[in-house]
Amino acid sequence: MRAINRLLNLTARLFAAREMGILLVLIVMCLVLSFTTEGFAQVENLLLVARQFSMFATMGVGMTMVIVTGGIDLSVGSVLALAGCAAAKCMLWLGPYAGGEIAAVAGILAGLGAGLVCGVASGLIVAAVRIPPFIVTLGMMSITRGLVYVITRGWPITGLPPAFFFLGQGRLWIVPVPVVSMFIVAAVGAVFLSRTRVGRSIYAVGGNEEASRLSGINVGYVKFFVYSTCGLLAGLAGVTTASHLSSAQPSSGLTNELDVIAAVIVGGTSLMGGSGTVLGTLIGAALMGVLRNGLVLLGVSANWQLIPIGIVIVVAVIFDQFRQMRRGRVQA
Hints:
mainly alpha; ABC transporter involved in vitamin B12 uptake, BtuC; two-stranded antiparallel sheet
C-alpha cells in the first residue's frame, strides 16, 4: 500500500510539472505525424530531426540561463557564424604546419574562444555599464555579422581537414555526434542550474534583482556569467555547424536567435525571468524541430511554414502571461 501511494504521489508530481504539458503536446504531435505522413516514425528521420534541433537546444541551454535572469541575447545566430569562420580560418592557417588532427583541435578551440569572447563582451557591458541586454546584444549581433562578412567576403570557407568533420557528421553507434553533444550540454546545464550555488543565484536574480543584491548575491557576476556561457555555447554550435557543412558559411545562423528564443519560451521559461528549466528548453526545441519536419513531410510550402511556427511562439508567450497573472493573484 505504501508503494502504491508513493507511485501515485510521483505520478501527481510529474503531471504537475511545467514541462509535462509541452511534453504531452510533443507526444501527440509525433503520434499524429506518424499516422498522417510516410517516413516520420522511421529511425533515420527521427535522428535527422534530432540532429537538426540539436544546435537550437545547445544554444538554448545558455539562452535559458540568460532569460531566467530577465535578459535576452539576440546575437547567438551571428556568434554561431563567427565561431565557424574563426575555426575554419584557424585550420587553414595551421594546415601547412600541422597535421589534420592538430589543426582540427586548434580550430575547435578557436571557434569556442570566439564565441566566449563575444559572450564575455556582452556580459561585461550588461553587468558593468548596465545597458539593457536587448540593446547590447542587438549591437553585438550587428558587429559579429559584419565581422563574418569581412572575414569571408561573402564566400564560404572550404578546404577544411577531414578530421574536423567528425564533430558534425560523425556518429556514435547510430546516434549523430551533435545529438550526443546536445544531451551532454543539457545534462550539465540542468545539474548546474538546479544543484549549484550560482545556478540558484541565477533564479534569484531573475525573480527579484534588488532583493538578490541586498541578500549578498553578486548580481553583476551572475549576469556576466550567463552571457559568457551563452556565447560559449553559441561558439560550440557554430563549430559543429561548420563541421556538418564541411565549410564555414557566411549565412550560417541567420534568424537562429529567433528559433533559440522560441524553443526556450515554448519550453516554459518565462520572459519575465525567475523561472525555467533546461529540460523544458530541450522539449521546446524538440517540438519546434518536429513541427518543421512535419510541415515538410506534409508538403506545406516553405512560404507557409513560418506561419504555424509563429503561431506556436505567440501562443506560448500568451500562456506565459496568463501564468504570471495567475501567480500574481495567488500571491496577492
